[in-house]
Design a protein that fits this description.
seven-stranded mixed beta sheet; alpha+beta; binds tetrahydrodeoxyuridine; globular
Length: about 160
């Protein structure tokens, strides 16, 4: 028998220490929480996706009275990026960074790490994009940001053929 351990590699930066590009993306994710439809959980998640050409796509979680019919903020943005018609030769599947910010029912900043299904959706984009890995920024309730340099750092041992 041999015991093994795996973990998540990430760094923590305070919001005010972020590079402009990252801070703007966190702001976009935070503002996007206002588009959340979350009458059941009262938990608003906003996501902002930075494309290689500098475009930003934002999204927010959308719930449904038939609970499983709802959708997480992250997958809404990712699948939208996959559907955007190529503009000026830009393939919107070329995602550089994904930022996530959330608010609880009192509108206080909350920490929301992407769920397993969203991580799996993210890794599909990363594997297809053969250039650099996709970065993930998770806004935390103390206004620090967890920075993952690759989806693989968020989802080690992911499924692959
Ligand atoms: N949610 C997201 O939008 N992203 C995640 O990665 C996890 C959870 C949403 C789903 C639901 O609307 C609410 O947060 C509470 O689970």
């Amino acid at each position: 028998m041999c015991k093994k351990e795996i973990g998540n590699r990430y760094k923590i930066q305070h919001y005010s220490d972020l590079a402009d590009e990252d801070r703007i993306l966190i702001d976009n994710a935070s503002n996007a929480t206002s588009n959340s439809y979350a009458p059941y959980s009262e938990f608003s998640v906003g996501c902002a996706v930075l494309i290689d050409d500098g475009s930003i796509i934002t999204s927010a979680n959308q719930e449904n009275c038939a609970y499983p019919s709802g959708m997480c903020a992250e997958r809404i943005a990712l699948y939208y990026a996959g559907c955007v018609i190529r503009k000026n030769g830009t393939d919107y599947r070329n995602i550089k960074t994904i930022a996530i910010s959330a608010k609880d029912k009192y509108s206080n900043l909350a920490t929301a790490f992407p769920c397993g299904a969203c991580r799996q959706a993210m890794i599909e984009f990363e594997v297809q994009r053969k250039k650099q890995p996709i970065r993930i920024l998770v806004h935390q309730k103390d206004n620090s940001v967890a920075v993952f340099e690759s989806v693989k750092d968020l989802l080690p041992m992911s499924f692959d053929f």
